[in-house]
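Pasting as-is:
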Amino acid sequence: MNAFEKMMQWQKYAEKVLDEDFWTDFSEVMQHKGPYLNVYEAEKEAMIIMGLPGLQSEKDVRLSVDPHKLYIKGTLRWKEPEHSRPIQTELNHGNFHRTVDLPFPVEAEGINAAYENGLLTIRLPRKTNEEKYQDHVPVQYRRRPSR
């Protein structure tokens, strides 16, 4: 049995055990770039919560929106420990960008974004009439109290 046949045998086994398309799910995970986020839908608003460890100030993230998409760009700044080598790395650092498809059209006015304890929370009100594209959304940056 050659390497390709072994791989195909493994795929069939994994799909049988997981009852899913193993390689499609695996490739989606491997293609993920940028910080992770959750998108929520409520009656009057959409809410996005994004993990951004290492965000230093409101200048490190930029949000812009059109009625159907939210664009998030920024830079995560943190240093890896000196005199050590990474064994496993999952945390992102450096520049990132994400485009989020919104569950419904949103109002550019009234968008609220706040950063606290490593999480960026963005609230986007449901659109009630035609609005134009908003190029920049300010982020309120709150520092965690030192202990």
